[in-house]
Amino acid sequence: MEIVLLLIAGVVIYFLYNTLQEYLKNPIQQQQPYTKRVDIAPIDFENPYKEMARVDKVKSSEFGVLAAILGHLVWSDDKVCPLEKELLDEILTDMAAESKNPKLSKEELNKIVMEQKNNDTMLLIDDLCEDYVALTKGEYKKRLKVVEFLFALAYADGVLSDDERDCIVDIAAFFELANEDFNALYESFEQTYAQERTMSEKEARAIFDLQDSKDLNKQDLEQKYHELIKNAKQNIFDNKNINKTFRDTSLLRIKEIDEAYTLLMPLAQDNQDTQKIQKDSAKDTQDSQKDEKSAQDKSRSGWDF
């Protein structure tokens, strides 16, 4: 019996000895915990200096994904009115300012929006929304405000087209918005744009701080329009606005500015056309006088003795 115990003990000691030798030759490395980074594209180790693929650039940040989502809505009806252009320009400005990625400029974001117009460069809306939900996990109110802004963008021309509505419905579903929240947004915008009123020229001039319609200039009117929209719109990414709806803080004022702009622009165009006609007429008169004077000078040149 003792011999058997000694044999077992010897085998155990031999096994432990070999294990110790293997450990000393190959010490166990402490493994780092795996962390998924959705904001960084994977590295191509075969060619680490290769430029990141376009799709990876878009999906490498929250604002890149959001710009692509905005592009889907903007081009859903194949037209962009002046107010839609202004609102898009302003949100891209805010996104570029809020972004922590210095390479994600306003120009780059606008390029992403434009790419969604082309079927060859368009990204799937369901994939984009799933990425955005992952990037804004725990930020339900942020996604709700994005959908509210999409309504403002879609209603910019005064009408929510079927294509725009379907696009927003799909995005809201992918964003996992509660039915009551989405329906509240839908109904509030529907009620706002169902209210029609006729704005007078005097009211429109007051909004643009113009004393007389003769003061209207197309370029100045466009610049003033841009400034008014910029001052009226809400930055949906500012934390202080997270509980303030776009409709209550900005929508009515923006709608008023756009109605005034729509009324005044034809008058500004008429003024510009009139000024051009007057300028051309004055130039023709001046040219005629020059020709007449030249003819007189030629006839007088024959009198020299």
UniProtKB/TrEMBL annotation:
Top-level lineage group: Bacteria
Region of interest: Disordered: 272-305
Pfam families: TerB
Biased composition (Basic and acidic residues): 276-305
Domain (Co-chaperone DjlA N-terminal) ranges: 66-184
Record-linked InterPro entries: DjlA_N, TerB-like
Entries under Gene3D superfamilies matching the protein: TerB-like
Protein known as: Molecular chaperone DnaJ
